[in-house]
Predict the structure.
Amino acid sequence: MSTFTLDTATSRATPTPVPGKRMTVPALRARKAAGKTEQPIVMLTAYTMRMAQLLDPHCDLLLVGDSLGQVIYGLPSTVPVTLDMMCAHGAAVVRGSWHSLVAVDMPFGSYEASPQQAFDSASRVMKETGCAAVKLEGGAAMAETIAFLSQRGIPVIGHVGLTPQAVNMLGGYGARGRSEAEAAKILADAQAVADAGAFAIVVEGVLEDIATQVTREVAPPVIGIGASAKCDGQVLVTEDMLGLFERTPRFVKRYDDLAARIVAAVETYAGEVRGRSFPTADQTYRPKPA
Ligand code: KIV
């Protein structure tokens, strides 16, 4: 439950931080002990201060996903997303949260060339946003980079299975692991990322058996999206689960239909503006009584 304080400069209610400690990387990692996670990890994407404020009390992890490319900027994929975008949104989400661990996605082209490039980009993200961790896509090919970052104080979340930044290689966003070779590669990728020091691993868009096997076999918590309820935690794109888009992937459960509710509210507003029934006396200023 949040309480609110009035920001007198803006007349807006700002959630009052609940005294306590922000989730840490070691605490999150420790959720999985001896291969078991008693308390599944709750993770959602957030790109803005206000959304972070609303999600934060209910989440363990807020991900500033590069899915903001499509969700916020209307880009065709995550490929054009830049470090500048991730830093601006990452800083807003850190400002809007006090409880969840905030992780920021490394955008395409900012980390793949070398461990040094990844360190330069990730350290910039951490300095400019105040986030506690970064996430990067890729399996065995990224293991050296994940080890390089982890050993230098940059906690990393791995991301295997369907890796949206590789959409041009994959040819689309279909589920991965339908052939034996592909399934074996996903398992090997997850193991490589775990061995390299990732403190958690996102497994996206894979056949359920693969997700459960990865969850059983790797030591760090596995956070599923389009994966399995048996993973150590779940993540969704918040705008998808709130029903802000007419079409969402099959693995998304819509917990609301915000698009319909927004359209209804805006239709009412437009009608009232056109009919001059808004604003009323309640929303207009009068001289103060003498
Ligand atoms: O960018 C993103 O939102 C993600 C999640 C879907 C895991 O990577």
